[in-house]
Amino acid sequence: MPPRPNARAFPNGVLNVDKAAGETSFAVVSRLRRLTGAHRVGHAGTLDPLATGVLPILFESATRLAEFALRLPKTYVADIHLGFTTATDDAEAEREQVADPSGLTANDVLEALSTFSGRILQEPPAFSAVKVDGKRAYKLARRGEEPRPRAREVEVYESRLIEFTPGPNAVARVEVRCGSGTYLRSIARDLGRQLGVGGYLGRLVRTAYGGLSIDTAVSAADLSTADEVRSRLLPAEVILPDMELVKLNVEQEAMVRQGRAVRVLPEPGLGQIRAHDSVGRLVALGHADPLRRTFVPEKVFNC
User: Fold this and answer.
1) Active site amino acids
2) DSSP code, position 17
3) What is the pLDDT of residues 125-167, one digit of tens each?
4) What predicted TM-score, i.e. pTM, was given to this entire model?
């Protein structure tokens, strides 16, 4: 079907969404695709249905930046309930009592939490999308099997105790800043194990994703028109990790948009490079060719 005469192409960009509890990340994407009529809409970094907080929604060419966005650090605030475990390591399943946590103090939790820092080995939850013998772990778990996903290395930049509520229903509220692939459910489970009383994840809020903060996020339910979404769009590069920037003049930009390498000054160094046009818009990502002393585009974006 040909486009409507007055239809405007939806721009590239990133929407900083505060996902509500109970909805899936896919449902947020679907709602915004219907609302805006954009051809390509995606998200960077799934949040579990029970979790809330920052969910970057990518529009049009920005969807091609998802792989880079996943490299950004994320910050979470989590309530870890002690004294119990659940099959899912969160509040979705029935809890089973392990031991009375009444004797625990904030110092006990602080000491145990200090081990969750740096590069650590972490076993994903049994109810997760990782594969065990070629099958999704959660599918095996739902069939009554007990999958043991292989432990993998993740990075936790910082973990700190915000608040501790002692007693038979002890809760530790923690803030964790970590890299991609880190399961907060696993941290809750393993913290409980280390304290000898069991633990599971309750409330979880992603408060930051790279430079995106929950303080400036918008609820998708509060957006009712495509123009409202347009007005809240951020430049695509807000979800890029730090990388060298080069500026292109009009002639260089035309060549790069054709996929051709160009000489730029000052000469870029090694590593990933992003190229912007004369008014600051992202044109391409690429690398330097040290022999030809050129910028070589790998991904070119429409403005």
Assistant:
1) 48
2) E
3) 876 565 655 656 556 556 565 667 778 899 999 999 999 999 9
4) 0.88
